[in-house]
Amino acid sequence: YYIGFCGAMDSKYAVLEKYFGYTSFLPGQEEIIDAVLAGRDVLAVMATGGGKSLCYQLPALVFGGLTVVVSPLIALMKDQVDSLRANGIPAATINSSLGYGEQRIIERVILEGRIRILYVSPERAVQPFFLSLLAKADLRLVAIDEAHCISMWGHNFRPEYRRLRVLKERFPAVPIIALTATAIPAVQNDIVVQLALKNPARFIGSFNRKNLMYRVVPKARYFPRLVAYLHEHQNDAGIIYCFSQKATEELAEKLQKEGFSALPYHAGLPDDVRAEHQEAFIRGDVMIICATVAFGMGINKPDVRFVIHTDLPRDLESYYQETGRAGRDGEAADCILFYSRGDYGTIRYLIEKEYNDPAQKDIAYRKAGMMLDYCETTGCRRKFLLTYFGEAYPEERCGGCDRCETPVKVFDGTEVATTIITCIRGIGERFGASYVVDVLTGSKSARIRENGHDTLPVYNSGRGYTRDQWLRFVQEMVQKGFITSTGGRYPVLVLNDRSRAVLKGELPVPLTEPGPEGVIALRAEAD
Ligand code: ADP
Ligand code: ZN
């Protein structure tokens, strides 16, 4: 039943048309495919939907022999195999759901050279028995999908991915292509090192989604503003992400009461209900889906006009992935985040619960910190996002985010900055932002008294601005490099060369005028 024969050594264009029915490549595909065909190791970073599969499927057909694809998700493997077979490409998967007899048959046809593309799990890929099967087969290419799973810096670390290094050790002459949609620079380097890729060709596609508009809005009493927005977008389909299952149901109900067509979606709903709600949304029978992050995997609805977050996502990878479900059709779409500093507490709770390994915990805190920095940046949001993903964005302003729409006003904040730096120095560079601001605003906290910091000249010198405004200034100074935050779980503020230059009066500090909105508040700290 492994139908079809596919002639090896067809040209890439012939294969593209004959087996995939496309007449041209998507951006980046051809360069990647050329590098693979030239026998190089390749790291390919491409946004979701960018067409990664073709980058190894097409070379597999041109090479002939056997291509092994390592993939972490059995369900997705099966879909891929089915669609390849439907195109007349002999593909198969070996996984634990197969019976013994079925596995033996597949092994035999592999050795007979009748399978072109074989999907396996990472656990299977490193089994000695499987490796010796590959040694006897005509192995031409290894593709490692979702390669970010190899890195603790990725958003889905899987220790078993680390063992995939054995593939390069056992088959040094076989090129490896590693693919992922989410790679901050630290992840990219990790992939190359961990898989022992040899002088790999790196292709980093653009992550810029030009048609998406990014906004961050204060979360306090957000419901009426949400309703107002939805009234203006009556005919648009959209996703509203909530943190908890309960919140999705409550929000859907509240929106229904306001007359909107909304349904909840989360992993706790019975399978049939969940499937029904998803279908209704995709068909357009319901306009708004209130969902947990469980919603969206593998869903392709091109005309999602807005993605709204009522709670803070835990990192920018998640946020980018979730907002990426808007505007797949290329038409304008909104990404709105209701932001409150209080949500950081929930994230901290999750991180503490989820990770035991201190290194992983620290990474998770750093990422959560970047998520907050995104919310609080006074600069262009798009530039912030793209910079985070390691992509150079040459413009200072994108014109497609709230910060570019209404740029913040800047004033000469040198005096404010000097006060903050003096305070940090005065307390010995041993405390976080909220402690610093407590000292400045004359807090009566016992801790400050015990430390004797209520006797410093800067104590209570910060009248004229509110606590939130001071926090905002501190945050901005960190972002602009006038002071340094050690980051991690208990961030501490310390001075750097620029801080010292400010103290000497050598460096002016432009800061953002506190707005009438009362300024978006800062992160809570662990003290
Ligand atoms: P990714 O794995 O990067 O998310 P896929 O490989 O699933 O992306 O491809 C995304 C979509 O693009 C699929 O529907 C696929 O059929 C389509 N696609 C891939 N390559 C091409 C091409 N050269 N021309 C047109 N469509 C393509
Ligand atoms: Zn912008």
Furnish the topology, listing elements before pairings.
Elements: H1 12-20, H2 29-37, E1 42-45, H3 54-63, E2 66-70, H4 74-86, E3 91-94, H5 100-111, E4 117-120, H6 122-125, H7 128-136, E5 139-144, H8 165-170, E6 176-180, H9 185-194, E7 201-204, E8 212-218, H10 223-232, E9 237-241, H11 245-257, E10 262-265, H12 271-283, E11 288-291, E12 304-309, H13 316-323, E13 333-339, H14 343-354, H15 358-376, H16 381-388, H17 402-405, E14 410-412, H18 414-426, H19 433-440, H20 446-450, H21 467-479, E15 484-485, E16 493-494, H22 497-503, E17 510-512
Parallel strand pairs: 1-6, 1-7, 2-4, 2-5, 3-4, 5-6, 8-13, 9-11, 9-12, 10-11, 12-13
Antiparallel strand pairs: 14-17, 15-16
Helix pairs in contact: 2-3, 14-15, 18-19, 18-22, 19-21
Domain Helicase ATP-binding: 33-201
Organism: Methanoculleus thermophilus
Family: Belongs to the helicase family. RecQ subfamily.
Query: Looking at the chains present, what oligomeric state does this protein adopt?
Result: single chain
* Rg, Å, rounded: 26 Å
Q: Helices and strands: which structural class?
A: alpha/beta
Major sheet, described briefly? Answer: 7 strands, parallel
Q: In which order are the strands of the major sheet placed?
A: 3-4-2-5-6-1-7
Mean pLDDT level: 90
Determine the strand fraction and express it as a percent band.
5-15%
N-to-C terminal Cα separation, in Å?
A: 64 Å
The best one-word shape is globular
Number of strands: 17
Bound molecules: adenosine-5'-diphosphate, zinc ion
Helical content class: 40-55%
Number of helices: 22
Runs in which pLDDT lies below 50 for 5 or more consecutive residues are 1-8, 517-527
